[in-house]
Design brief:
Strand order of the largest sheet: 8-7-6-3-2-1-21-22
Shape: globular
GO molecular function, one term: RNA binding
Keywords: Exonuclease, Hydrolase, Metal-binding, Nuclease, RNA-binding, Zinc
Organism: Marinobacter halophilus
Strand content: 15-25%
Low-confidence stretches: none
Distance between the termini: 23 Å
CATH class of the largest domain: Alpha Beta
Protein name: MBL fold metallo-hydrolase
Pfam families: Lactamase_B, RMMBL, RNase_J_b_CASP
Mean pLDDT: 94
Helix content: 25-40%
Number of strands: 24
Structural class: alpha/beta
Number of helices: 12
Number of domains: 2
Length: 460
């Protein structure tokens, strides 16, 4: 199956019909372009949206099976990573040896990727091309432009993929945040200009398509977090997603305002902050202390930021709850703030962690219990989706990055906003944008690979 010169195709192998392990292919004129290459972390006993039933003993890290494109590796022009979240970049170290193509991405994402590749002794084998926002690159048969959007991680980019027969706008993960605090913002004219040029299809994030209104700005969280941290009597531990550099920046400002010393607990937090510094995205005024010093400070002087907001085992917050963290022990009267919401499927683990903390006499405050906002989603709610469709005015909407219900609602919203056609499908469907729009259902076999005992194994 090879696209001809008049074809423009979209083929998702992962991330459509589910949230996680994104792997997308675009086809034109005998070549393919890969966009994102991510992982997922399945929970035993949970049924995924794609119908996969997960069991104990499965590999803890899973990714989309790339067999279709591995068999056509000579047609793969390159890979683009839109941003540095695990469900978009995490599979690269595992799958690149099968693909062996150049990788194009932004500076911050490249910093994260290099750290991952170094762990697999791949750092000097993988060609990484850093691309600036607004830049255009010819990658095989595809002319690609990187466009600034905002998300819950620095330097996310949407893509305008141009070919002689048609153009596709690929949103990546995004939101419309007028005060993102860290990294680039966005410009409405970027997207209205695309409409003037003509966009045949918009492949777009569906995560919050069933959420009314507009997502909160990162800047709107400062007061709520300041009130909670400022009124706390003992140590304060805030748990959030390690990739949210803007949230860390907010907490560093609050540490200065409340006279506390801030330290990071957890490998992913330390890694992300180091990458942000290397990419010039960590403000010089945001000083951190070594976590090993936290245990020697008066309790009311401590603000720790810890991994583990989803109740994961072996994370910093889990070890604090168990009394096994090497840097300090939580005591009755200390406070733990969850500046994050539960990812579906993690509720049971989070509840168990909260129970452990409360058994220690620790005050626990979740985003749902806080009187003011202390967490903001990184994905667009309905008003943002409507605005983007009104700006870009695509001829076709292709919802992705969501479960079936998210994508169904997204497709209806797109049509209500004036998009002539919505094509809703799932992994393995071939979306034909040109010459004649349509979907060939389940044309390509899809599945999962897992990483177990230093080897890739077939999960399904």
């Amino acid at each position: 199956m090879t696209p001809e010169h008049n074809d423009l195709w979209f083929l998702p192998l992962g991330g459509t019909g589910e949230i996680g392990m994104n792997l997308n292919l675009y086809g034109h004129d005998g070549q393919w372009l890969m966009v994102d290459c991510g992982v997922t972390f399945p929970k035993p006993g949970r049924v995924s949206a794609d119908g996969t039933v997960h069991h104990r003993g499965e590999p803890p890290v899973q990714m989309a099976d790339p067999a279709f494109i591995v068999d056509r590796r000579d047609q793969l022009a390159g890979m683009i990573i839109t941003h540095a979240h695990e469900d978009h970049v995490g599979a690269v170290p595992y799958l690149w040896p099968l693909l062996q193509c150049p990788i194009y991405t932004s500076r911050f994402t490249a910093e994260i990727l290099r750290r991952k590749l170094a762990e697999f002794d791949l750092l000097h084998r993988v060609p990484i091309i850093e691309v600036d926002t607004g830049e255009r690159r010819q990658i095989g048969s595809f002319n690609v432009q990187w466009l600034a959007l905002t998300h819950s991680i620095p330097d996310p980019n949407a893509l305008m993929i141009r070919t002689p027969v048609g153009h596709i706008f690929h949103s990546g993960d995004w939101k419309l945040d007028d005060q993102p605090l860290v990294g680039h913002g966005y410009s409405v004219s970027t997207f209205t200009d695309l409409a003037e040029e003509g966009v045949d299809a918009m492949v777009c994030d569906s995560t919050n398509a069933n959420v009314p209104g507009h997502s909160l700005s990162e800047a709107a969280l400062h007061q709520g977090l300041l009130d909670l941290i400022g009124s706390a009597k003992g140590r304060v531990v805030v748990t959030c997603f390690g990739s949210n550099i803007a949230r860390l920046h907010t907490l560093a400002m609050i540490a200065r305002e409340t006279g506390r010393y801030m330290g990071l607990l957890g490998r992913s937090l330390v890694n992300m902050s180091g990458a942000a510094k290397a990419a010039g995205l960590w403000p010089g005024s945001d000083k951190l202390i070594s976590p090993s010093h936290l245990g020697y400070l008066p309790r009311h002087d401590v603000l720790a930021v810890a991994t583990g907001s989803q109740g994961e085992p072996r994370t910093a917050l889990r070890r604090l709850a168990q009394g096994s963290h090497p840097d300090f022990e939580l005591e009755a009267g200390d406070t733990v703030i969850f500046s994050a919401r539960a990812i579906p499927g993690n509720e049971e683990s989070i509840d168990a962690l909260i129970a452990q903390l409360r058994n220690l006499g620790v005050i626990v405050i979740t985003a749902e219990q806080a009187g003011a906002p202390i967490h903001a989603s990184g994905h667009p709610a309905q008003d943002e989706l409507k605005a983007m469709y009104q700006w870009v005015r695509p001829r076709i909407s292709i919802p992705v990055h969501g479960e079936a219900e998210h994508m169904r609602v997204h497709g209806e919203l797109a049509k209500a906003t004036g998009v002539p056609r919505a094509m809703v499908g799932r992994n393995g469907d071939l979306f034909m944008v040109k010459p004649i729009p349509g979907i060939r259902r389940q044309l390509v076999a899809t599945g999962r690979l897992g990483w177990q005992k230093q080897a890739l194994v077939c999960v399904e």
